[in-house]
């Protein structure tokens, strides 16, 4: 399968991976031959990339880092929790974490177990979600990235569970942000941005009022927009005053935000998201954590078309453990011509060759 931009799709392409809505329900099933109307629908959903089937890449697979049942359970739990708070007239009286705290912890433990048994760099492009209410999928994605990074940093299980609990609820304060502001397709004005920024403190106040929620989880909600140089919000904290968990969450939160579909812009690819993090490494984000995050995620996910420094073109076919920016590439084109018989090039061994460009069109299509 190949990862393609929806802008380069043509009728007749076969969808290789299903398209989900924000609650994890299938909108378009895999195996469907795309029509012009379906392609228009995908672009209308805000979908940036999809996987399609073709003969030269039919054995290339992508895997979501957690099982479908765990993903469904997590999305259901997040959706239920956030909606109950949103529809309540009194946060204190209706706060449901005392009743669901253990269930949420159970979900976090299942996510953590799946990630630790996955043994591969995390890629969330393997399943594609349509833009709807992004808070639910964003909360799940941030939890997955956060636990992958926490595992890479060597945190013990107890701390990983605390961190995961804070991650899955880090954006709960957004239930108080007006939907017309949260989903505004254009640039926010100063007043609207100030409304958005209030979600950090709102989430903190919600979580700290629930006896079953660890205080560190409340601080995850409070501080995940703080930055090392003091340029973040809500309090403008600097490096030593920001909780360790919040520093981890900041990285996962920004990476998922820029690599996910949004109503106001198209998603970046993972290597572009990492460039954003590295541009702030040492000033806004902890450099050691950014480097650990690079080892945790698939910089160039399977199915992505790439151009190499020697001019060859191909498709990322397999990840190499702990060196996610040096994957294996299936060469489909060299010297400007399609190859008669494709072959694999392992960039962890061919150290004189680097990926110089990504291409989400049909490179080497025969």
Automatic annotation (TrEMBL):
Mind telling me which InterPro entries this protein's record contains? Answer: HD/PDEase_dom, HD_GYP_dom, HDIG_dom
Domain of life assignment: Bacteria
Q: Where is the HD-GYP domain?
A: 113-309
**Signal sequence segment:** none
Q: Name one GO molecular function term.
A: kinase activity
Query: Which UniProt keyword terms apply here?
Result: Kinase, Transferase
Does the entry feature the keyword Kinase, yes or no? yes
Classification via Gene3D superfamilies: Hypothetical protein af1432
Pfam families tied to this protein:
HD_5
Q: What's the protein here called?
A: Histidine kinase
């Amino acid at each position: 399968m190949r990862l393609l931009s929806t802008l380069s799709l043509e009728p007749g392409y076969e969808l290789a991976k299903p398209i989900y809505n924000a609650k994890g329900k299938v909108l378009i099933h895999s195996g469907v031959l795309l029509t012009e109307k379906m392609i228009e629908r995908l672009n209308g959903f805000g979908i940036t990339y999809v996987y399609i089937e073709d003969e030269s890449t039919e054995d290339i697979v992508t895997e979501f880092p957690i099982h479908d049942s765990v993903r469904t359970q997590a999305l259901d739990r997040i959706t239920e929790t956030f909606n109950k708070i949103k529809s309540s007239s009194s946060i204190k009286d209706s706060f449901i974490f005392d009743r669901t705290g253990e269930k949420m912890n159970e979900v976090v433990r299942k996510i953590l177990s799946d990630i630790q048994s996955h043994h591969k760099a995390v890629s969330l492009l393997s399943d594609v979600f349509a833009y709807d209410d992004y808070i639910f999928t964003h909360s799940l994605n941030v939890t997955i990235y956060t636990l992958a990074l926490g595992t890479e940093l060597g945190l013990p299980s107890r701390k990983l569970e605390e961190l995961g609990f804070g991650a899955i609820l880090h954006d709960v304060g957004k239930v108080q942000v007006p939907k017309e502001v949260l989903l505004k397709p254009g640039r926010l004005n100063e007043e609207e941005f100030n409304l958005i920024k209030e979600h950090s403190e709102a989430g903190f106040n919600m979580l700290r009022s629930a006896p079953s929620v660890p205080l560190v989880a409340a601080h995850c909600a409070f501080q995940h927009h703080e930055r090392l140089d003091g340029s973040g919000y809500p309090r403008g904290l600097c490096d030593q005053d920001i909780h360790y968990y919040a520093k981890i969450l900041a990285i996962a939160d920004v990476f998922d935000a820029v690599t996910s579909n949004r109503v106001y812009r198209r998603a970046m690819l993972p290597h572009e998201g990492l460039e954003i993090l590295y541009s702030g490494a040492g000033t806004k984000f902890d450099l050691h954590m950014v480097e650990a995050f690079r080892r945790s995620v698939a910089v160039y996910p399977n199915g992505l078309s790439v151009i190499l420094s020697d001019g060859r073109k191909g498709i990322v076919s397999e990840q190499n453990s702990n060196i996610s920016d040096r994957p294996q590439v299936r060469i489909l084109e060299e010297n400007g011509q399609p190859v008669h018989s494709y072959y694999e090039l392992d960039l962890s061994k061919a150290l004189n060759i680097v990926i110089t460009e990504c291409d989400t069109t049909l490179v080497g299509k025969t």
